Amino acid sequence: HGAVPEHTVDATLVACHITLALQSIVSRNITPFEPAVVTVGSIQAGHAPNIINDKVLMKLTVRTLNEQVRETVLQRIHDIAVAQAESFNATATLTHVNGSPVLKNDPAANQMVREVATSLFGAAQVGEVKPFMGSEDFAFMLEHNPNGCYFTIGAGDEADRCMVHNPGYDFNDEILLKGAALWCGLTEHYLR
User: pTM here?
Assistant: First the structure.
């Protein structure tokens, strides 16, 4: 009960300390030259204001562009969660679910896409994008066959357009013909 916190372990307090400690991973365990993100996206505890919760479910997202950095971050999450829990006479159980690998394009495949797209649409329509911390299922495919390349077709970079996974996103239907032409061009190039 909330009136006698000295008689129990407050799992919500433990989760708060874990959340704060996790924020040190990127700034203290990862070089500033390697991007990494640790996000605590969900903390689920009780519903009553006068009850001290004995369990909390935390859900995190980890994003990196380097597999070694990813492994370091995951290990530090484990170490911090266990140590913080122990400091409150609690325990932490960690489950790694649906960890997408780092997406790495094959340089030769990347060059092929660039050449075909440039021949179809002109150099002004083909560009490089900065690395993005989102995850992508295509990374699993590249793990099994690394001779591939993830690319986008430019569904709109106007200031008033929202990114995907945003409720305001509106797909640019006009890009479908260019996308189909690019896939046809890539197929022709590959079959030569």
Answer: 0.79
